[in-house]
Specification:
- With about 140 residues, the chain is mainly alpha-helical.
- The protein has two domains: about 60 residues, lambda repressor-like DNA-binding domains (434 Repressor (Amino-terminal Domain)); about 50 residues, no CATH class.
- The protein has eight helices and two strands; from the N terminus they run H-H-H-H-H-H-H-H-E-E.
- Strands 1-2 form a two-stranded antiparallel sheet.
- The longest helix is centred in the last third of the chain and has 19 residues.
- The protein starts with a helix and ends in a 12-residue tail after the last strand.
- It comes from Paenibacillus endophyticus.
- GO terms for molecular function: DNA binding; DNA-binding transcription factor activity; protein dimerization activity.
- This is XRE family transcriptional regulator of biofilm formation.
């Protein structure tokens, strides 16, 4: 499913496998394996790298029904514009913003994966995820 969604989005954008691999910073052969479902378990970091140039997100690649449609003008007031401008002025890149967004999403996903143990009534972690993003 992940590979099919990546391929479909890539084709809609008019990207070749080579172009998407370059934009995402992953190898062409690895991307091809993912698209052909020969690699069924890419890391969240790899999926985030692939999702960004496709204007997508990890949730959609994992099976969410629809890409979120957001009206950015309604969401971003003057304070948001100022925060973003300051971050960019201080050297934050688009990749940094994407990595931060993906880290927050993975933490929210992890928090939602907490299950209640029926015998003790206590919560038990079912997954731990760490995302590391390094810009050169």
């Amino acid at each position: 499913m992940i590979g099919e969604r990546i391929k479909s989005l890539r084709e809609k954008k008019g990207y070749s496998i080579t172009k998407l691999a370059d934009l995402a910073g992953v190898s062409k052969s690895y991307l091809s394996y993912i698209e052909r479902n020969m690699q069924n378990n890419p890391s969240l970091l790899v999926m985030a790298k692939i999702a960004a140039p496709l204007d997508s997100n990890i949730e959609y690649l994992l099976g969410e029904e629809h890409l979120p449609k957001l009206n950015h003008e309604e969401m971003l007031d003057e304070e948001w514009h100022s925060i973003i401008k300051d971050a960019v002025d201080e050297g934050m890149s688009k990749g940094d913003f994407q990595a931060l967004k993906d880290l927050i999403r993975s933490n929210m996903w992890k928090d939602n994966r907490l299950e209640v143990n029926p015998q003790s009534g206590s919560k038990k972690k079912t997954s731990n995820i760490i995302i590391l993003h390094i810009d050169n």
